[in-house]
Amino acid sequence: MKVLITGKGGQLAWELEQLAPKNVQLLSCSAQDLDITDVDQVNHTIEQFQPNIVINAAAYTAVDKAETDTETAYAVNDLGSEYLALACKKISAKLIHVSTDFVFDGTKTTPYQTNDQVNPINVYGASKLAGDSKVNAILGNQAIIIRTAWVYSVNGNNFVKTMLRLMAEKEQLGIVYDQVGTPTWAKGLATMIWALVEKNQNTESTLDAAKILHWTDAGVCSWYDFAVAIQELAVEKGMLDKTIPVRPIPASAYPTPAQRPSFSVIDKQSAEQESGVETVHWRQQLSTMMDELKAN
Ligand SMILES: NC(=O)c1ccc[n+]([C@@H]2O[C@H](COP(=O)([O-])OP(=O)(O)OC[C@H]3O[C@@H](n4cnc5c(N)ncnc54)[C@H](OP(=O)(O)O)[C@@H]3O)[C@@H](O)[C@H]2O)c1
Questions:
Q1: CB 91 near ligand 1, within 6 Å
Q2: What is the domain partition of the chain in residue ranges?
Q3: Kindly report the CA angle at 211 between 44 and 48, in degrees rounded to 5?
Q4: Cβ(61) – ligand 1 distance below 6 Å
Q5: What is the pLDDT of residues 229-242, one digit of tens each?
Q6: Is 180 helix (H, G, I), strand (E, B) or coil?
Q7: pTM for this model (two decimals)
Q8: Which whole number is the average pLDDT over 129-148?
Q9: Across all residues in the chain, what is the average pLDDT?
Q10: Which CATH number fits domain 2-157+183-217+263-280: 3.40.50.10540, 3.40.50.720, 3.40.1280.10, 3.40.50.300?
Q11: N or C: which terminal CB in the chain sees fewer CB atoms within 10 Å?
């Protein structure tokens, strides 16, 4: 089985590469190798390699910058996804396309289902939704769209690594308590994606069973809870030598260019059933990732 991954070097693509099953012939492409906004490069690479499955882990993920750099956000997240979907269609390859909880507005108070009404409240979310819609329209059941949230990994910049740095540098921190969601260790997401690929290898129809899946770790927390857990675990593991006061602050006290949903918990049952992989509680995943970070 041949699998092509876009976005090499990104958090998810990196974990996917680390965990690639031995029986998969993998081509992992960085933005330099394969710029998904370049239609000729997309067509050429996919025609040459003839993948059975393309995993699109490339994205414009700078949520705040997207508010002003709108054109680039749409070029990558919308147009780039469209080019990949069209190229997959030509050779009958399947596309596993990764998307975001930011397609929702966060006004619900119970976990978002895969068929809930979408209504992005920032440019990044809107650009991702535009790409998802193209993928869906072009490929239908030949694609699977996986929405995820709050992604972190030992590789790349993310909330966990930022907190560890700030907790070592600052006297105190104020962290937002009124935005609630679930963190996702990119390694757990990569494990679930490879399980989907493997199932597809054994049964031709697996990827056809559901078009949209939701995946994060298990449980619920605010950014404040997440930060407190990071500090507790870091002290326990000897990664920080002292604690600093971490205060809960409202999002209104930490204005950002992009508005963010106040509730973005998504229901993971669809992906659990489809892949056979169960979600693990976010705090346990965080602890394992921090062990990995410490060992690096
Ligand atoms: N990070 C999160 O918290 C989060 C939350 C929800 C959903 N997601 C989704 O999860 C997926 C993976 O996210 P991630 O955290 O792994 O992202 P990431 O670490 O920001 O990686 C994105 C990758 O895409 C590449 N890229 C950007 N523009 C490209 C282009 N034109 N052509 C090809 N590659 C390009 C980047 O390369 P350069 O670094 O060279 O630009 C980078 O390697 C994305 O679909 C994202 O939207 C992420």
A1: no
A2: 2-157+183-217+263-280
A3: 15
A4: yes
A5: 999 999 999 999 99
A6: strand
A7: 0.96
A8: 96
A9: 95
A10: 3.40.50.720
A11: C
